[in-house]
Write a structure and sequence with these properties.
Layout: E1 3-5, E2 8-10, H1 17-25, H2 41-54, H3 58-89, H4 97-118
Antiparallel strand pairs: 1-2
């Protein structure tokens, strides 16, 4: 039954001492249900094709992919945190954007020249 307690609206029955005891004695069962994921038809077909080719279930492939994504995201976060710490501590000096572009253009031009000379 909905009701107000102080400034909060509760949409269920108020908690009584007996209800609290019942909840405390109830065994805790961890959630082990699945999760529904929606894909585009193209992605779903790719997943099914990979499952058929590998002999693995689609849910295993998705779980592995998500676990790999989280591991990679954590690695990138660690890398960025370390780079930031290096910059903040002065161990490395930032390179101005114009200098980076100039270096990359020079490197690309040298690579093209070397490739053209080998032809």
């Amino acid at each position: 039954m909905p009701g107000w307690v102080g400034s909060r609206l509760f949409l269920c029955a108020p908690l009584t001492c007996q209800t609290a005891v019942d909840l405390a004695l109830r065994p805790v069962i961890p959630y082990c249900g699945g999760m529904e994921v929606h894909f585009t038809p193209e992605t779903e077909q790719k997943l099914k094709d990979l499952a058929a080719a590998s002999g693995r279930a689609t849910d295993e492939l998705v779980e592995d992919a998500v676990a790999g994504y989280f591991a990679e995201a954590a690695d990138v976060r660690d890398l960025l945190d370390n780079r930031y710490d290096d910059l903040e501590s002065g161990r490395v000096k930032p390179i101005p954007g114009e200098e980076v572009i100039a270096r990359l253009r020079a490197k690309s031009a040298a690579s093209r020249t070397k490739r053209d000379e080998s032809l």
